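Q: My labmate handed me this sequence with no annotations at all. I'd like to see what the chain might look like in three dimensions before we decide whether it's worth expressing. Could you predict it?
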Amino acid sequence: MKINLKSICYIVFSFFLVQFCTIAEASDAKVKKPAPDQVIQMLKEGNQRFYTGKATYPHTNAARLAQAGTENQGDHAYATVLTCSDSRVPVELIFDAGVMDIFVIRVAGNVCDTDEIGSIEYGLVHVHTPVLVVLGHTQCGAVTAVAHTLHGNSEPFERNIPPLVDNIIPAVKRAMHTHADVHGDAIIPYAIEENVWQAVEDLYMESPAVRMIVKSGKAKVVGAIYDVATGRVKWLPDEPVDKILQRVESDPDKKTMPFATP
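A: Here is what I predict for the chain of 262 residues:
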């Protein structure tokens, strides 16, 4: 029988990752976190308080700041959120949360590249958050800029912007292909949603650690879109996330080594 060294290494690394997560939870986390579905409900309720004008602004007093100076965020943060740098998307306010409640990763276009994926791995594995929310938003400037470029009517970008937003290109193209009867800026809302799924796919392709922790049930990945005009979060269905994970698992190009090599 032919021995596949790559498969053996993956199994060994997978075993050690599971052991690491178990040990880390036992040694670092003093407080048992809510289950993923409970966290999602907490986020939904917090958002409802926000957009209905009933926000409570929890965990923002001096006592909480004192806690932050002496305690581990891993004992408190209940969600990791990847979202856009747009100033109209104030994450803690959106979910009526406070200090040490949400591990936030912000980047233009809520793309999922090396820095963001590493931050997500930290949030799920080391801060022990049971949920990752990939949060797009309406009127996203990054998605709009890519759509305009693909339509051939954009202005030149500064040199560092194209490699920042290139992850968005497949999402816009997919939206244009799926909705071939939609033209001009009307495609942008569809592209914004596709960009959420693109970020999930990029994350799963590049992070065996995230795939494993999701498959173990310790964490859940969800997509959502924030409406900058109303304050309301639209929660996207779970099915696309599950399908993306299944598709990535069968993709031979996915990354398979959870740990960095020395």
